[in-house]
Amino acid sequence: VISGVFIQNIRVSFPMMVPFALQSEGHSLETAAWCLSMSAVTDCIMKIFISAMSDRSWFNKRIFYMGGTLLISLSISVFSLVSSLFWLKLAMVIYGMGIGTVMSLFNLVMIEYLGHENLSRIVGATCLANAVGAFTIGPTAGWIRDSYNSYSLSLQFFAAISICSFLLWTLMPMAQRLEKRKQELRKD
């Protein structure tokens, strides 16, 4: 749930900050529009591609989900550090790839790890947690920007919470083993 909150709030807050970050670096609003459009097109293409691939036997949803979170973090980090138009656009394309991957797999991963019977509860908990995240994550990024007068630091905050999402998913196998052990102890 926490990982989903991080990604959902990045998905909403990061694109809203992009035009302002680009303008502060001397780029035009047209550049911001192109960057966001390229990201959206890539996002859409990845959602279609990943959704089509997710039913394949070789497709590991958790690994691809984690890869998407890494792409998000890498792209935001690069975006916050470069000023070349080529690298900015490339970073936004990679961001779109990451968001498209993560968003197309989010519900599938929840079902895989929590089961169909728990889906309505986990969706409700995720929505509630997203609401709390909306009141904390976006304003925190804004506070960082206002306090340090730096869009770069604010954007790096988004990259950091995306890495936290990745790290939470690296712990999932350990959590599954712990849950399995608890269930075995209950049976005995």
UniProtKB/TrEMBL annotation:
Membrane-crossing segments per the record: 62-87, 93-115, 122-144, 150-172
Span of the signal peptide: none
Protein keywords: Membrane, Transmembrane, Transmembrane helix
Keyword Transcription regulation applies: no
Membrane topology: Multi-pass membrane protein
Keyword Transmembrane helix recorded: yes
Domain Major facilitator superfamily (MFS) profile, first and last residues per copy: 1-188
GO CC terms, sorted: membrane
Family matches, as InterPro entries: MFS, MFS_dom, MFS_trans_sf, Proton-linked_MCT
GO terms, molecular function: monocarboxylic acid transmembrane transporter activity
Domain of life: Eukaryota
Subcellular location, record wording: Membrane
Name assigned to this protein: Major facilitator superfamily (MFS) profile domain-containing protein
Species annotation: Meganyctiphanes norvegica (Northern krill)
